[in-house]
């Protein structure tokens, strides 16, 4: 049984069915990617998993508990962290302060800007651990605004880890990155797998085929294929969906 499962998940926007009766199961500790042509419904599906959009019908279960229609904050508290959406980098704070704010928010059940972010040693220690995990410990005192694009995205992952999740939802983690940065991000995602379950949306096929345990292919709101990368790559309906450019 997957750590995250959907059944019959559907979203209509007026006359458009963006996500149509989707059943997925995301295995614990593995890397699952969600791919599909433009307009296939990937963002809409992600938004429903993370609570940013209420489904028209269907169910989302996390660790066997129904989370359908909960707020993004409630879903995050249950252990689903969406990087690049729930948390954002505060450009005017240092790298360490950013993570301390997020750790503090988890311990105090909300954001509190009136308490100095460095005032609790245990928050700092926890924040440093997260920075080590994403390879940013040596940048702890730099202003977040001065980080490279790739490092900023790693910091965003550290912020997502700060809420203590089991499942990480990553929106195009390598978008806009240089080849070197992409390789670092792939290593990071690989390191995180096992301890965390990862579901990510990605357009870059090299990345998808390289690191996914399972690939889910969405077209016109429906899952048309799912399985290991080699199997999905060889699937005729997937090749048609991409070559035909049909959304
Ligand atoms: N808020 C909205 N109102 C109306 N239609 C929407 C809305 N959001 C998405 N859609 C439609 O739903 C369908 C799926 O869109 P979605 O953005 O989920 O696809 P996607 O796979 O993420 O695409 P892309 O790869 O281009 O980001 C599209 O036809 C889109 O036009």
Automatic annotation (TrEMBL):
<dbReference type="Pfam" id="PF12399">
    <property type="entry name" value="BCA_ABC_TP_C"/>
</dbReference>
<dbReference type="InterPro" id="IPR003593">
    <property type="entry name" value="AAA+_ATPase"/>
</dbReference>
<keyword id="KW-0029">Amino-acid transport</keyword>
<keyword id="KW-0547">Nucleotide-binding</keyword>
<dbReference type="Pfam" id="PF00005">
    <property type="entry name" value="ABC_tran"/>
</dbReference>
<comment type="similarity">
    <text>Belongs to the ABC transporter superfamily.</text>
</comment>
<keyword id="KW-0813">Transport</keyword>
<dbReference type="InterPro" id="IPR032823">
    <property type="entry name" value="BCA_ABC_TP_C"/>
</dbReference>
<dbReference type="InterPro" id="IPR027417">
    <property type="entry name" value="P-loop_NTPase"/>
</dbReference>
<feature type="domain" description="ABC transporter">
    <location>
        <begin position="4"/>
        <end position="245"/>
    </location>
</feature>
<dbReference type="InterPro" id="IPR051120">
    <property type="entry name" value="ABC_AA/LPS_Transport"/>
</dbReference>
<comment type="function">
    <text>Probable component of a branched-chain amino-acid transport system.</text>
</comment>
<dbReference type="GO" id="GO:0006865">
    <property type="term" value="P:amino acid transport"/>
</dbReference>
<protein>
    <recommendedName>
        <fullName>Probable branched-chain amino acid transport ATP-binding protein LivG</fullName>
    </recommendedName>
</protein>
<dbReference type="InterPro" id="IPR003439">
    <property type="entry name" value="ABC_transporter-like_ATP-bd"/>
</dbReference>
<keyword id="KW-0067">ATP-binding</keyword>
<dbReference type="GO" id="GO:0005524">
    <property type="term" value="F:ATP binding"/>
</dbReference>
